[in-house]
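Lab channel / #folding
Pinned by the channel admin:
"Please post every new chain as: sequence first, then the structure tokens as a reply. Keep commentary short and put observations after the output so the thread stays searchable."

First post following the new format, from NK:
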Amino acid sequence: MTEHLALMRVRSPRRTPSEFVRWQVMRRVAGESLGTVFLLLLALLTACDSRPGPASNQAEDPELLVARAALTDFIQESDSAQVILLQQEMWARTEQLPDSASWVDGNSTWGLGEAPRHTDLHGAFWRANRTVRRLPASFTIPGRTVQLVAERPDRADGAQIYYISRVGFNAAQDSALVFVASICGPLCGHGKRKLYVDAVGGWKEAATLASVMY
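Reply from TO:
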């Protein structure tokens, strides 16, 4: 044992004061470099964790925002039910109408006593409503439970099913036209065409341009 310690002392020569200082500096530099590498790795991991998630966590589609606002306002007018039956496809109101010009001319005058003429909006509404769009399964209405359905269930209690059309936006994307309706039977229901504007706090109803009874 004594011989072994002696050999270690022989193989580990003493450092001069300058060598000792240089060794301490090198050790400190190495430690700081490792610390810097660790911080860089930590920053990279944090950046990866903060990358945008699925589309549902990002800014929502303006069309869905208007649809939610219109349905919320429309339902609050007459329905206190907690569970809302909602047609899963946004209604293509002009899908079967080949002539856009006559439709716009015939409909843009509705509600002139309540709102200014919005010919560009009616044209945008006509174009948007040429095709259907399926609502996402995550679609919600504040304070209600939404059940998306493919068609009106055969219910004896006269439960309503709600419909929302595609949304037409003006060029500035700050005004929107949408049709919302509820149907509770072959000759039971009503709908409204509404004008919405982008205001502080979200989309707000500006006017009801037309009302329809079924």
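NK: The chain has two domains: 2-49, 61-213.
TO: also worth noting, The longest strand covers residues 188-199.
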